[in-house]
Amino acid sequence: MKLRIQGDSIRLRLTQPEVAHFAADGYVEGTAHFGPGRTLTYALRSSDAAELSAEFGDDTLTVFAPRAWVAPWADSERVGFEGTQNAGGGCTLALLVEKDFECLHKRPDEEGAFPHPLADAP
Known about the structure:
Elements: E1 2-5, E2 9-14, H1 16-25, E3 27-35, E4 38-47, E5 53-57, E6 60-66, H2 67-74, E7 80-88, E8 91-99
Parallel strand pairs: 2-8, 4-6
Antiparallel strand pairs: 1-2, 3-4, 5-6, 7-8
């Protein structure tokens, strides 16, 4: 799973195996190591909520996706979901969860990525 943070925007991109794991278990995570005892865990968890939401605590960023969205997403052409969350102080946090597609120019680090929809375009 790839994590991208840019300002008040969080994007998670999942490979095919990660989407399948998330659909089956309702949870998937990744970890970035910054040194001994210093990690950042980022996770996607299904929930009973009606919209995407996120929280951060104990060195873990968790994005919550409505359980009702998960199974249909895994078995469809739908790329992902997006939403916003009031972050207080006049700030809005943008959230995006999507399938990770192969680049049009193949790279070695794309194992498990979804085929790019434009790969066969003329």
